[in-house]
Write a structure and sequence with these properties.
The structure is a single chain. Helix content is 52%, strand content 10%. It contains 23 helices and twelve strands. The protein has a five-stranded mixed sheet. The protein has a three-stranded antiparallel sheet with strand order 4-12-9. Strands 6-7 form a two-stranded antiparallel ribbon. Helix 10 packs across helix 14 (240-265) and helix 16 crosses helix 23 (447-464). The relative contact order is 0.15. Bound molecules: protoporphyrin IX containing FE (HEM). Heme binds at residue 444.
Length: 505
Amino acid sequence: MDPIANLVLGLTLLITFIWLRNSQRLKLTEPPLVPYKYPIIGHTIEFYTENETLIKKCREEYGEIFSLYVFGRVITIVGKELCPEIFKNHETFDFGDAHRDIFPIDDFLYRPRKFFRNVSASTQIKVSKEFNLYTERIQRQLIKTIDELIGDGKVLQSPLKFFQYTIARPMVAAMVGEELCDDEELINSFACATSDLMTYLSIPPFLNFIHPVIHKNFIICGTGATARDARKTRKARLSNKFHREVIKRKVAPIIEKRMNYMKKLGDACAPQVDMLQHFINAFRKGYTVDVDVVTDFLIVNIFASVHNMSTFLTFGVQEFANHLQFQKELLDEQEKLYDGSTYNLDQINKMKKLDSFIRETLRMNIHIVTLEHKTLSSHYTFSNGYQVPEGRIVYIHAQGIHYDEELQGQNPHEFNPFRHFERNLPAARIDKSLITFGLGKHACPGRCFAINGIKLALHFLLLKYNIRTINDEKVMAKIVGPYKVPNSDKRLIFEKKNLKKMALP
Ligand code: HEM
């Protein structure tokens, strides 16, 4: 067949395919698409500049489910009634697939799609169950870091940056062992691996107007500079390969040492207790293991843990400084527990008011709409009859759930740190009233670890310092599009108290 005939046949097939797909879509009873003024732009500007107002207005007018036109595609937003359906139908709605458009982790690490599924989650479940084996070293490293970074007191200019380092060191201890806890280069990579990429990740996806793949490839290219290319420039810090090379260089000798040890003493020898060892065990073939694979799994866990934990630790410290009226009651609990030694899990579990304070921090500082899931089946019919087609990204109006009176009790817009203490709801418990960690089968497996880490950090900070803002001014989270991020414009003051002696086990 000649090329012209080929082209005509190809175009005919393409048009038929698009027509068939669209005609099939036309049959769906889609959620109402909120009218917009400007074609192509749709709701994009309001979504990014006045998200809270836009979503509130749409909820009032359209209720539980509606669609918006943002960055060249229709997205659907659901509220508290339909949200459990998203998590329950995890084969239809996939968080990882939707999140990959924003944070293409497999591509960053040159791995096939879904390469990191399951192993990361199952490792975290194991780690959570053995958390009591991690508590001592986490406390030791937290106290050391706080001493080094704040010492006799400090005014913190950029609290999030500071708390990234506070969390990074105990995470080095938990992930690869205490042997590397004084390695500043490694601590820096743990602290900054995620936030350094934010420069690229937070660029609004204008290229999605053409096609989502173009924006995704732009991020991948932007962050893809090698350490060698980038070391001498500011770009070094924006490159995913840079931190990957540092981490691999640091852990490779440790892996080799452990493999030799196991070879010498056989499988019966007591393995190290840390995430690295779990990954070695998961991927070793005899007494060899692919160091690149183990490194990449560590990196995925760093991406999942350090930035999230430091963000909520920052929010926690800011909420503490914001609410003078609750400080005494929270402090009393910490002082009663303090005996100068390290805490075991039972003692950490006694920090019930602090736990409730953390749950309230997680509740109040949730993004406005978040937990986007991609529809994987040909379509999905919600229990109220509305249908969404394959490929549709469905967001959850998380703030609506977290500010709902029926779910949260009285005055849901107010920060009440003891709200969950009274209802006996621990911070790590996921249910329909707290979705910061997701819900259902794929809910965050690292949540107990995260809560305990944040709790210990807050416990030591509260005991050691009077924490306040300049002129006792309230620090509100910054809203960037649909996201809430810690405010880095307001400084935090840490004044050292006359505490007897801070334990350094
Ligand atoms: C405050 C801190 C944290 C927050 C807010 C958070 C939040 C989340 C969320 C929302 C998800 C997706 C849930 C879903 O698919 O429905 C998730 C997944 C995950 N998180 Fe966390 N996380 C935190 C800390 C951690 C820590 C400390 C670790 C590990 C040490 C961790 C490891 C993971 C892993 C491995 C997954 C993937 C689970 C899967 O695909 O089944 N997270 N996390």
